From TrEMBL:
Name of the featured protein: SDR family oxidoreductase
PANTHER family: SHORT CHAIN DEHYDROGENASE, SHORT-CHAIN DEHYDROGENASE/REDUCTASE SDR
Family matches, as InterPro entries: NAD(P)-bd_dom_sf (IPR036291), SDR_enzymes (IPR052184), SDR_fam (IPR002347)
GO terms of molecular function: oxidoreductase activity, acting on the CH-OH group of donors, NAD or NADP as acceptor
Length: 277
């Protein structure tokens, strides 16, 4: 081999090894940058998302607030008595006052949030009514007009008018979602027990609010669903609840984060399965 050819080979080898090193270093650098980006990407994507949860001072609302905060969302939790909502404050959520039966409270909340976008509205506040749970022929006789109306005002009119008032905020978000927390006890085609008139009637009406909103031009571009959270251990669900809110609410949040057009206007169980009406 001529000296010239030898030199060319050595030069090529050196060039190759130098460029290999350069390429390798570049790949390593890109790899480390992309893993940094990947690590930062998740919280950053939630950082600008705002969730508002009604009745967040205890039970399922409090658990959702905790988990949304931990995921990096900006969370507004409402409570009837904000000064007593210590556990909610401790989650890092912003606490705002709201009794969902109060027109003045709803108007004040909307005013305080004017111009602020809301990505996810969770109408969670709920009222069960007197514990006429067990089958008892006296249930009907014990039922009062006042209790029936209160169930309707909290469970049906609450979500309807809170959504109405916060619609301008939802419109400011790119893919807003409205979630009405319903219950399996609302299902017309299931269960015929003679109990909990107010709760069942008002939640079935809430399902119709969900259906109606899902076809309303005013709600265009906003996903609306009803979710039944399952029987949980809370004040309402009592110790007999089969589910631990920490686990079931993680599933509910996963469902909310992954809502698509196929979910729009439907009633969904906490585990993501579809429920009948
Ligand atoms: N737990 C279950 O097994 C179960 C099953 C099916 C559906 N759900 C639904 O899940 C939601 C949460 O239930 P939960 O188990 O967490 O019940 P919970 O422990 O009894 O909590 C109910 C929440 O709603 C609030 N609330 C009641 N009336 C209100 C009003 N007029 N204005 C504003 N907030 C009001 C309560 O606030 P205060 O503390 O001020 O009273 C509390 O924060 C409800 O919609 C319920 O119907 C629960």
């Amino acid at each position: 081999m001529s000296i010239a050819a030898n030199c060319t080979m050595m030069f090529t080898q050196r060039t190759l090894s130098t460029s290999s090193i350069l390429i390798l270093s570049l790949l390593v650098l890109l790899g480390s940058m992309s893993s940094t980006w990947a690590e930062e990407a998740e919280p950053a994507s939630h950082k600008n998302s705002r969730v508002l949860i009604t009745g967040a001072n205890r039970g399922l609302g409090l658990e959702m607030a905790k988990q949304f905060v931990a995921k990096g969302y900006q969370v507004i939790g409402t409570a009837r008595k904000p000064e007593q909502a210590v556990a909610l404050k401790q989650t890092g959520a912003t606490v705002m006052k709201l009794d969902v039966t109060s027109e003045a409270d709803i108007a004040a909340l909307a005013k305080a949030l004017e111009g602020e976008k809301i990505d996810i509205l969770i109408n969670n506040a709920g009222y069960f009514g007197p514990k006429l749970m067990t089958e008892n022929p006296e249930n009907l006789a014990k039922l009062t007009r006042q209790e029936m109306e209160l169930c309707y005002r909290v469970n049906t009119l609450g979500p309807l008018f809170v959504t109405q008032a916060l619609l301008p905020n939802l419109k400011l978000a790119e893919d807003a979602k409205v979630v009405h927390i319903s219950t399996r006890a609302s299902i017309l085609s299931k269960g015929t027990s003679g109990t909990a008139y107010g709760y069942r009637v008002s939640k079935t009406a809430l399902n119709m609010v969900t259906r109606t909103m899902s076809g309303d031009q005013a709600m265009k571009g906003i996903l609306v669903v009803a979710i039944a959270p399952g029987h949980n251990k809370t004040h309402m669900g009592t110790e007999r609840g089969k589910l631990d809110p920490q686990q079931s609410m993680a599933q509910v949040i996963d469902l909310i984060e992954n809502l698509t057009r196929k979910h729009h206007g439907g009633l969904w169980y906490y585990d993501g399965s579809r429920l009948p009406w």
